[in-house]
Amino acid sequence: MALSQANVFSQLSWQEIKIVEHAIHIRNYAPREPIFKQGDPGSGMYIIIEGRVGIFLDIPNQEPKMLSELSEGDFFGEIALLDESPRTAAATAVENCIIIGFYRPDLMEILKTKPVLGSKILLALSEVLAIRLRSTNNELVKVSRVLEDKVVSPENE
Questions:
Q1: How many helices (H) and strands (E) does the chain have?
Q2: What is the pLDDT of residue 157?
Q3: How high is the pLDDT of residue 21?
Q4: What pLDDT, on a 0 to 100 scale, did the predictor assign at position 140?
Q5: How far apart are the first and last CA of the chain?
Q6: Which of 94, 83, 90, 86 is nearest to 129 (CA)?
Q7: Helices 115-152 & 14-21, crossing angle to 10 degrees?
Q8: Which portions of the chain are predicted below pLDDT 70?
């Protein structure tokens, strides 16, 4: 199964993967069907088995802005495993999709019944989030430099 392809589960043994497989949920989505909406409570992460998913930012009085398009093997929504804060973007099927859902209550149950396995998942999740945060920080630095250059450039005088 594609479960072991996601970074969060890639370091697990096959026995551990089997335990997690009992906690996942397989869902099918049609094109343009929302997986979750911006502002919905976070409930878990999703792994794309088949199809493509768009991640959109809802902007008042405008069409939603596509932030990224994800495909087979990609995962999203992982922050919801750590907290139940509202979703900061929307996820919508771009085409027919088969998606694995792994939800916070399932992770909490694994942490309670198999604490070593739960800790491995949390450590892997932390590593993924650290990588994504560093990437975001690097992008912010680039954007900041571009904006600074525009403000101080002689063209603006």
A1: 3, 8
A2: 54
A3: 94
A4: 87
A5: 59
A6: 83
A7: 80
A8: 1, 153-157
Q: Which residue has the tokens 């939603």?
A: 64
pLDDT at 150: 80
Beta bridge partners of 93: 53
Domains of the chain from N-terminus onward:
2-156 (2.60.120.10)
Could you tell me whether strands 97-103 and 75-76 are parallel, antiparallel, or unpaired per DSSP bridges? Answer: unpaired
CA distance 128 to 110: 19
- Token digits of residue 78: 């992982």
- In the structure encoding, which two tokens stand for residue 95, read together? 């085409």
Distance CA 155, CA 151 (A): 9
- E strand residue ranges, the chain: 25-29, 34-36, 44-50, 53-57, 65-70, 75-76, 90-93, 97-103
d(CA 115, CA 119): 6
What residue type is assigned to position 58 of the chain? D
Q: Which two tokens stand for residue 15?
A: 């026995």
Q: Report the residue count for the chain.
A: 157
d(CA 104, CA 78): 9
Write down the pLDDT at residue 103. Answer: 95
